[in-house]
Design brief:
Oligomer: single chain
Number of helices: 8
Largest sheet: 2 strands, antiparallel
Radius of gyration: 22 Å
Number of domains: 1
Distance between the termini: 72 Å
Order of helices and strands: HHHHHEEHHH
Low-confidence stretches: 1-9
Shape: flat
Structural class: mainly alpha
């Protein structure tokens, strides 16, 4: 019996079903289920961190110059805003990873329930569609940022 067969048999049934043949062939140390769990767990932690920082900024630092002069644990309001932006960036990257891990499912749901077609096997088209959607989202965000930049009053 090969090591990968032994590893597969030692896994719970739910993990055995979600390990792809590629995972089994390379002796992957993490099943798809476990990877999804950790990505989802990190989404929860980042969301709670973001929520906590937002509450701190909104309720503990008063608006205007009074808030600018205050510190919390040695950090000014500007430091807290920078931390908030960093958490938002990490959260966005984690959401992107989450969607990438579930992209086949997203494509299947869209095909079946939105387009009313029978879902087909992935022949690379799903990846091309995913990259196109990502590029479209980036362009929409860039256009909205550019509109805000030109619309700001000085």
């Amino acid at each position: 019996m090969s090591p990968t067969e032994t590893e597969t048999q030692a896994l719970p049934e739910s993990d055995r079903q979600t390990r792809t043949p590629a995972d089994q062939a390379r002796g992957s140390w993490m099943s798809r289920t476990l990877l999804n769990f950790w990505v989802d767990f990190s989404l929860l932690v980042l969301f709670l961190a973001l929520l906590w920082v937002e509450v701190v900024l909104y309720f503990l630092f008063p608006p205007g110059p009074a808030g600018e002069a205050m510190t919390l644990w040695g950090l000014s309001v500007e430091h807290w805003r920078g931390f908030q932006f960093g958490v938002i960036c990490l959260f966005a990257l984690d959401v992107l990873l989450h969607v990438m891990l579930h992209w086949s499912w997203v494509c299947s749901v869209v095909a079946k329930h939105v387009l009313h077609r029978k879902p087909t096997r992935d022949d690379g088209i799903q990846t091309i569609i995913g990259v196109g959607v990502l590029i479209a989202i980036i362009h929409i965000l860039a256009a909205a940022l550019l509109a805000a930049w030109f619309g700001i009053a000085r």
